[in-house]
Amino acid sequence: MRIIVANYRYFIAGGPEKYLFKFIEAAEKRGIEVIPFSVNNPQNFDTPYSKYFAKPRSNQLMFTDTKKSLSNIVGMVRATIWNYDAEHRLRKLIKDTKPDAIYILHEVNHLSPSIIRAAKKEGVRVVHRISDFFMFCPKYDFLCDDDICEACLYRDYSKAIKHRCVKGSKVGTLLRVLAMKLYWKIKVFDDVDQYICTCEFSKGILIKGGIPADKVTCIPTFIDTSSITPSYEFDKYFLFLGRMAHQKGPIYAIKAMKYLKDTEFVLKITGTISDSNEDQQIWKYIQKNGLEEKVIFTGFKQGQELENLIARAACIVCPAIWYENMPNAVVEAYAHGKPVIASRIGSLVEIVEDNKTGLLFEMKNSKDMADKLRILMKYTGTVERLGRQARMKCDSDYCEERHMSKVIACLKGK
């Protein structure tokens, strides 16, 4: 079997790319030839197929602090609305390699859904994995400021335009809305043969938004646990694992530490404080509340350093304020035998089984989160009990073989 895997990055920048390269490795072990399709970028990994990759859009976007040059405008419009270059190059790749299917991970604002239509024109089966809500929300996360908002789910984008939801930019928001209206008008999403969601919650969103139920399959992500030895012992810290992104709610984990000053435990965050306004506000909060010794920024970690950091944590915290789509942090925690303390929202309610593989708290309620963390400190056996059940869930539900067999069946149309 030969498949094309399309993603706008061909280097590791986040969860979708981690999945991309894990999938390629797992597929090739099964004798499947995987051909990448992406956007040219100096950070890309080497591949003989890079000559087919699409032109990058301008590095600048038309937001409030961006130079509005002609090249910027052309690059943004091409990538945001309809990327004819990507469509042309993908059709050439398909003609030259004759794949059995294309597996799309993320294309919006770079490759654009033009690649869906390109594959359909060439008669290739299209399977699309969904990792956010780009089909329905101009800013992908169903958040308006800090609140859940589904106003655009049924194609009414007036609120998004009013609130300038895309980076606070009127032009950026209008372009994104125009693109979304176009996609539904020309029914490009009808060209997808099968959608894959990582959780039942997201599957429900797609169906609510108008995607036929028989076109949506739930296949959770996977992790290879064969080289990961779970650790049920821990040092005195909780771990926030992943990007310091607003929707992931790091500020609520930090605020929880205000209620845990009387303990020896600290919060470690795998990141740094940047110069962005939001990060600087977080740092001011830490200083104002005397949390400099309770909140530790480890900097970016990878490889064995990251493995060790997870292995010695008491738990992983996921204080998200958006509809998370099965974050990698949860699966990685489970693989290491660590419980997860998570917001009661979206897919987290589905994958973090309360008092079985972790503990759930009321979203944005840092006091409630702190109370849950105290349970782990007070009843130390709870960490091991939840951690062992988390690893068992990982081995049964998120194993490579189960995932790959289901995805391959979708790609084959079975």
Dominant shape = globular
In total, the number of strands is: 14
Largest sheet: 6 strands, parallel
Residue windows where pLDDT falls under 50 for at least 5 positions: 59-67
How many angstroms separate the termini? 14 Å
Any idea what the radius of gyration is?
A: 22 Å
Given helix and strand content, the structural type is alpha/beta
Q: Proportion of β residues?
A: 5-15%
In round numbers, the mean pLDDT is 92
* Order of helix and strand elements from N to C terminus: EHEHHEHEEEHHEHEEHEHEHEHEHEHHH
Helix content: 25-40%
Count of helix runs: 15
- Numbering strands along the chain, what is their spatial order in the largest sheet? 2-1-3-4-7-8
Structure description:
By secondary structure, this protein is α/β, with parallel strands linked by helices. It has helices at residues 15-29, 70-80, 84-97, 114-121, 158-163, 170-185, 200-208, 250-256, 277-288, 303-311, 328-335, 346-351, 366-378, 381-397, 400-412, and strands spanning 2-7, 33-37, 101-106, 125-130, 143-144, 147-148, 194-197, 216-218, 237-240, 266-269, 295-297, 316-318, 340-343, 358-361. The strands form three sheets. Strands 2-1-3-4-7-8 form a six-stranded parallel beta sheet, with helices on both faces. Strands 11-10-9-12-13-14 form a six-stranded parallel beta sheet. The protein starts with a strand and ends with a helix. 43% of the residues are buried. Mean pLDDT is 92; it is low at 59-67.
